[in-house]
Amino acid sequence: LQVDFEDIIAEPAGTYSFDGVWKASFTTFTVTKYWVYRLLTALVGIPLALIWGIFFAILSFLHIWAVVPCVKSYLIEIHCVSRVYSICVHTFCDPLFEAMGKCLSSIRISTTKEV
Length: 115
Fold this sequence. Notes:
The chain is an all-alpha fold. The chain has one domain (about 5-105). It contains two helices and no strands. The chain is elongated. The mean pLDDT is about 90.
């Protein structure tokens, strides 16, 4: 994020302060921004880096050792279920639909257009 002095403190056109005041304000803003950022980085940045490192390490651990094995196990189990389901469909539904197809295959539909 780029924050410049002119973006924060801008004098409208036609209104200008003394040059010394403007330069002192610019210097104060720039130095304060620089040192407060460094201070906050030193005080808060290092602990937050530690916390985020621990968080992503736990997330990686759970993904590698819990999520992926559970998904693989689920896929193996669902494969067995899908085979049983396929056998049931072929055993019960195929003969029914084949018989219905033979019964209904002799139906012929013709359309005529009347004027």
